[in-house]
Amino acid sequence: MLRSLFQQAPFLTPEDIDAFEPLWQKRVQLSRYDFLIRQGQVEQGLYFVTSGALRIYFPLPDEDICVGFGYPNTLLVSFPSFVDAKPSAYYIQALKKSELRGISKADFVQLMEHRPNIKRFWYEQLEKALVGKIEREVDLLLPEPEQRLQRMMQRSPHLFQHIPKKYIASYLRMSPETLSRLRV
Predict the structure, then answer these.
(1) Per DSSP, what are the bridge partners of residue 35?
(2) CA-to-CA distance for 166 and 8, rounded, in angstroms?
(3) What global pTM score does this model have?
(4) Which residue from 8, 16, 48, 23 is spatially nearest to 118, judged by alpha carbons?
């Protein structure tokens, strides 16, 4: 599965993939509600979700604000902590039994220094993530819940296959009841 993600980047050579794939040595198995990272920990790795579903959330006293998801064939990381090596403001929690493969930040950075195509792959992943975050920001500024849901459905209809509705509702900043009413 990880190899298939790399093979989607036509500029990655077989040699690049052969150098990259074995570095994803860390295997993580999480049960439902287990944490991959907790608020206050420093993110030390980048993960590829092989199975399951996870949420990235920011805790508030009265609620958790869901800011993203991980599901099969996606990369997952507490990004600000990964980049700045500072304690994470977020939690990453399994929503169901999940399996991930991880690469250490040190191995990843070193490989990017020696293989320009890996750096290009990372930049493309960052560009996709940035576009997604900008789209989400627009979604959150829309006053009508129907518009937020419609835009998310156009961009990511697969979320409903992997993520429980109450977390999608949090992500869209609406109540689960509103989401259920709109999805009828």
Answers:
(1) 93
(2) 32
(3) 0.90
(4) 16
**How is residue 48 written in tokens?**
């590829």
| CA 182 – CA 61 distance, rounded (Å) | 27
Residues 16, 117 contacting (CB under 8 angstroms): yes
Element (H, E) at 26: strand 26-30
Residue by residue, what is the 3-state secondary structure of 58-98?
Answer: EECCCCEEEEEEECCCCEECCHHHHHHCCECCCEEEECCCE
Beta bridge partners of 182: none
Residues with Cβ within 8 Å of 8's Cβ and at least 6 positions away in sequence, in order, are none
Q: 3-class DSSP state for residue 100?
A: strand
Q: Which two tokens stand for residue 182?
A: 């709109």
pLDDT attached to residue 1: 84
Compute CA distances 140 → 56, 164, 176, whole Å.
Answer: 17, 20, 16
Q: Over 70: is that where the pLDDT of 184 sits?
A: no
